[in-house]
Amino acid sequence: MLERRRTRQVTVGSVAVGGDAPVTVQSMTTTKTADVEGTLAQIYALAANGADIVRCTCNDEAAAEGLAQIVPRSPVPVVADIHFRHELALAAMEAGVHALRLNPGNIRKPAHIKLVAREAKARGLPIRIGVNAGSLDPEMARRHGGATPEALVASAMHELGLFREVGFEDVKISVKASDVRLMIDAYRLLAETTDHPLHLGVTEAGPLPQGLIKSVAGIGTLLAEGIGDTIRFSLTADPVEEAKAGRTLLEVLGLRERKGLDLVACPSCGRAEVDVIRVAAEAQAALEARNIPLQVAVMGCVVNGPGEAREADLGIAAGRGKGHLFVRGRVVRVVPEDEMVTALVEEAERVLAEGADARIAAADADAEAIAAATRDELLQIQGNDANRAAERISRIRRIAQP
Ligand code: SF4
Fold first, then answer.
1. Alpha helices in 125-235 (DSSP H)
2. Ligand 1 centroid to 111 CA: how many Å?
3. Residue whose C-alpha is closest to residue 112's, from 136, 81, 90, 140
């Protein structure tokens, strides 16, 4: 991971973006903003699943009135999303939002833009210049031969220029596109052009799994280069999935501390002694229900499982009808296979309460020896040919004989 690009900092409510602040996760509500209770319920769900900042559309007067009631009850800062009508930006500020997003592609009159910037400056609120390839200012597209990285960046810099004319620079910028390569190139160019904090996103990424893959490819690539101060996954899915995905991406890149469970599981192979997919799903549900903030491994065989997952806090590996519970790679207990998930959850709670060292010290005396014997037994049965290729080849040869 490269060093993070140095940016100036803006503050959205209580959340700092840019500078030395951690990269933050954003998502957007899908409710009508005028539906105050429904929108608040969604904001709470987003905040509980990793969103640091939530955006709500402010597309009409009813939405602005809704924001006036939502903002004081929201657990996280609220950003109003503004398109076409600059007066709704003024209304949203009056409603008390913590920041605005303006689309330069559809609010283009300099007088309107400057009026909003002046008001934001007076209220101490930041604005995101949210350029989008799909709604790019036609003039910028004409000048640059379409929605190119240069056109997206030029649109953002033009808007920033208007803000600067009224002395307003409390600005984050995004240059989103649904084409991942275009989005990456646009953000790279933007990062070379300005030191304002950047909000990353692949817009209209679509449903799972493609939407997730596009977002991770675009956002993850830039974050790994040190570019990006706040992120949003734009998925055609429950927005809670956006918040979870954003948070998880930051955690796996080491940009945020792990808050919840990190379940690692082997992909399974010919050596697997158990249905890894089923056991992993059951373990994930049980551990998430108890909100266990550990890295827990579910491994298909004891031959390789404890060793391969020795970085995990704890885990379980199957073998000859048994589950071998291990803590940091050391087998501490052996349980019947049908008790694997229950035993794993129990051990996770003990690791949390007592610490991993204490659990290793309290290991059953014969657990390592049983695991070693099972490993030898499996190796003897399976040899190095876990998929029994030799047997298969001889059968294939018999079948294929003319
Ligand atoms: S842990 Fe065992 S079953 Fe899982 S992938 Fe590795 S060798 Fe295969």
1. 138-144, 149-165, 180-193, 210-215, 221-224
2. 64
3. 90
- 236 and 284 together in one domain: no
CA–CA distance from 44 to each of 259, 264, 267 (Å)?
17, 28, 34
Tell which atom from ligand 1 comes closest to the C-alpha of 267. Answer: 5
- For 16, the enclosing helix (H) or strand (E) is strand 15-18
Spatial separation of the C-alpha atoms in residues 94 and 72, rounded to whole Å: 13
227 and 245 co-located in one domain: yes
Claim to verify: residue 308 and residue 333 sit in the same structural domain: yes
- Convert the pLDDT of each residue in 258-315 to its tens digit: 888 999 999 999 889 999 999 999 999 999 999 899 999 999 999 989 888 889 999 9
Cα of 265 vs centre of ligand 1, distance in Å, is 9
Report pLDDT digits (tens) over 7-34.
Answer: 999 999 999 999 999 999 999 999 999 9
Q: Is the CB of 301 under 6 A from ligand 1?
A: yes
Residue ranges in 103-168 assigned as alpha helix (H): 110-123, 138-144, 149-165
pTM: 0.86
257 within a domain of the structure (yes/no): no
**Distance of alpha carbon 117 from its chain centroid, rounded?**
31
Based on the domain organization, do 105 and 205 belong to the same domain?
yes
Domain containing 237 equals 9-252
- CA-nearest residue for atom 2, ligand 1, is 301
Ligand 1 centroid, distance to 299 Cα (angstroms): 6
pLDDT band at 396 (very low <50, low <70, confident <90, very high): confident
On whether both 228 and 319 belong to a single domain, the answer is no
Whether residue 101 sits in one domain with residue 130: yes
Task: Read off the tokens for 166.
Answer: 């009224």
Report the CATH number at residue 325.
3.30.413.10
pLDDT digits (tens, 9 = 90+) for 148-203: 999 999 999 999 999 999 999 999 999 999 999 999 999 999 999 999 999 999 99
What are the tokens at 113? 């833009």
Q: Indicate whether 243 belongs to any domain.
A: yes
Is pLDDT of 386 > 70?
A: no
Whether the CB-CB separation of 371 and 334 falls below 8 Å is answered with: yes
The band of 401, judged by pLDDT with boundaries at 50, 70 and 90, is confident
- In this structure, the dihedral spanned by the alpha carbons of residues 101, 104, 109 and 114, taken in order and rounded to 10 degrees, is 50
Return the CATH number at 69: 3.20.20.20
Are the CB atoms for 239 and 38 separated by under 8 Å?
Answer: no
